[in-house]
C-alpha cells in the first residue's frame, strides 16, 4: 500500500521538475528583462544616472521632492479616480452581460461575436473614436443639434478635456467591459446553472440566488479581471494625456512630462514618479488580494 504512494509521489516530483526545466528559459528572459529594468528604475529614482553626470546613490531627495509636493497628491487622487471608477463601471456592466450570456435570447449568437470587438481594437483607436463621437463638434453633438435637442453643436455638454474624465472613463469602460464579460462568462460556463436551479426550487428569490449562490461562484473571475484592468488603468498614459483636462495630470502623464523636459536630470524625478506608481499600485492590489484571500478562508474555500 505504501509502495504505490511513494512511486506516485516520485513521478509527480519528476513531472514538476521537468515543468520547471522547460519554463527556465522563459523565466530567465523575463527575469532579466523585467527584473533588470525594475532594479535599474529603482536605482535611477535613488540618484544613479552616471550617463547624465549624476551619481548620488542612494539619494531619497527625488522622492522627498515628489511626495512633498501638493500637486503629486492631486495627481494621485485623479489617477485613482480614473482607475477606480472605470474598473467599477466595467465590472458591473461585465457581470450583467455575462449573466445575460448564459441565458437564451434572440440574436445571442451574433451578440457573442459583437461584444468581443473592442478587445481587438487598440486603445488609440478607441481614443480617436471618443474624439469623433463625444467631442463638441463630434457626431453625437451634431445629431443632437440636427434633431433639435440643442441649438448648435457647440452647446453640447463638455465631455472631453475635463477633470471629470468622462471621455477617459468611457474609453476604459468600452475596452474593458468585454474583457470582464468574457472572464466571468467562462467561469459561469464552468460552474453550470444546477446550483441556481436548486436554490430556485427551494424558494430562494432572484436577489438571494445572485448574492448567495452566483456571486460566490463568479468571485474568482471578478477578482482576476479587476486586478488586471485596475493595474492597467492606474498606469495608463494615452487616454488621460489626450482626453484629460490638463493640470493636474495623472501620474503617468506627470512622469512623461519629466522624461520629455529639456533638463535631462529631471528624468530621475520622472523615474521616481514611475516607481511611486508601481509602489502604490502594488500596495492597493496586494491589499485587495489579501482581503479576498481572507474572505475565501472565512467561507471555507481555499
Automatic annotation (TrEMBL):
InterPro entries: MetI-like, MetI-like_sf, Sugar_ABC_transporter. The chain crosses the membrane at residues 20-43, 80-102, 114-134, 164-188, 209-232, 268-291. Keywords: Membrane, Transmembrane, Transmembrane helix, Transport. The keyword Transmembrane helix applies. One of its GO terms (biological process) is transmembrane transport. Gene3D superfamilies: MetI-like. SUPFAM superfamilies: MetI-like. It is found in: Cell membrane. It is a multi-pass membrane protein. Residues 76-290 form the ABC transmembrane type-1 domain. Pfam families: BPD_transp_1. One of its GO terms (cellular component) is plasma membrane. PANTHER family: GLUCOSE IMPORT SYSTEM PERMEASE PROTEIN GLCT, TREHALOSE TRANSPORT SYSTEM PERMEASE PROTEIN SUGA. Belongs to the binding-protein-dependent transport system permease family. This is ABC transporter permease subunit. It comes from Harenicola maris.
